[in-house]
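Researcher: I'd like a candidate sequence for this fold, 380 residues long. If you have to choose between options at a position, lean toward the conservative one.
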């Protein structure tokens, strides 16, 4: 524990480098026992490697002080190798070396759903957030958000109202709560079996630069990220980008094109960085909690009989399906290259296939063939 905490305080070493160190040396203690030449050969910056002992001494003293503080404030520290450290986050290249935590992460469910959005939420955003969460109350999920005002607050409150565990990720030390308006909400999250966590040491004050670091943790903890309302720029958009970089599914709630706080969501949908969210059923399908589209339900019944998906494609559909059978999932760019069809001709065909439950759209302008597709002779 102390070695991991020391590594997290090592000047010039960020989370990505720290994880590379742990992967290379096997443990933090093995890294601190290595000489400068070995560290340089492992890819460590020469200046840091040459002054590692001095930097380590400073970091070690800070780690000892932090360990004492966390004990005084009844806050636990989880390192990457701890069984309680969330698996969804553990394998991210820039995962925190340590997490400071209140609550029991082992009480979490297999599926985390991140909900993010603007602090200046509208009544539409509040209604959509509450509706989404309410329709997940019978599923084995927990929600994740940032305890900010606006959409974050609505997500946490709706989770508590529907008895869904909720996790709050903060951008500062856990000895205080920001914003102060949500101190009571934080207490209730813990009382109802939720979690409050941060990668920041105690007595780290909130600064704007820490919120992007917080946002990546929210995205890394979740299997699915939902953006409810956002302008074109903002923390929610950063969370969406992080989730997409982790190859996690991103949903966005559409809104009117004249609404400032829907422009970000509409942009994510239009550019293929998010899937349009029509209802919580879309999330439930993504996590396997709901019946598939009708076409997929028929496919499932056929597969149980060993027949696979029986579908009679048009010639245009068959061209795209042939590519998908060889490369699944496939990007639109690659689909265009291998089919020889221009994008404006492919998109209506892809929509038809999706509506029939034969394919599924994925973030990043990709499509995936569903089940075991068995082509019938095409329609002439």
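Model: Candidate sequence:
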């Amino acid at each position: 524990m102390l070695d991991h905490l020391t590594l997290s305080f090592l000047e010039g070493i960020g989370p990505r480098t720290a994880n590379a160190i742990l992967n290379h040396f096997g443990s933090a203690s093995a890294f601190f026992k290595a000489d400068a030449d070995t560290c340089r050969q492992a890819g460590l910056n020469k200046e840091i490697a040459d002054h590692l002992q001095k930097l380590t001494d400073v970091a070690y003293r800070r780690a000892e002080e932090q360990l004492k503080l966390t004990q005084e404030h009844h806050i636990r520290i989880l390192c990457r190798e701890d069984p309680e450290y969330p698996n969804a986050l553990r394998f991210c290249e820039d995962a925190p070396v340590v997490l400071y935590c209140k609550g029991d992460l082992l009480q979490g469910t297999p599926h985390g759903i991140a909900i993010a959005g603007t602090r200046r939420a509208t009544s539409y955003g509040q209604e959509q957030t509450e509706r989404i969460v309410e329709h997940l109350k019978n599923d084995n999920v927990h929600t994740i958000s940032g305890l900010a005002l606006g959409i974050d607050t609505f997500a946490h409150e709706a989770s508590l109202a529907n008895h869904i565990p909720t996790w709050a990720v903060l951008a500062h030390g856990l000895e205080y709560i920001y914003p102060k308006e949500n101190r009571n909400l934080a207490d209730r999250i813990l009382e109802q079996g939720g979690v409050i966590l941060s990668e920041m040491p105690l007595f780290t004050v909130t600064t704007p630069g820490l919120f992007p670091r917080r946002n990546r943790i929210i995205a890394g903890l979740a299997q699915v990220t939902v953006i409810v309302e956002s302008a074109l720029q903002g923390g929610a958009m950063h969370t969406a980008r992080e989730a997409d970089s982790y190859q996690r599914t991103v949903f966005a709630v559409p809104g009117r094109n004249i609404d400032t706080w829907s422009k970000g969501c509409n942009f994510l949908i239009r550019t293929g960085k998010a899937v349009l969210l029509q209802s919580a059923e879309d999330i439930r399908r993504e996590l396997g909690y709901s019946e598939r589209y009708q076409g997929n339900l028929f496919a499932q019944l056929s597969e149980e009989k060993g027949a696979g998906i029986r579908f009679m494609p048009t010639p245009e559909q068959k061209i795209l399906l042939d590519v998908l059978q060889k490369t699944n999932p496939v990007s639109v760019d690659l689909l265009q290259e291998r089919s020889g069809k221009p994008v404006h001709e492919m998109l209506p065909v892809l929509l038809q296939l999706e509506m029939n439950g034969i394919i599924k759209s994925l973030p990043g302008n990709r499509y995936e063939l569903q089940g075991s597709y068995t082509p019938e002779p095409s329609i002439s």
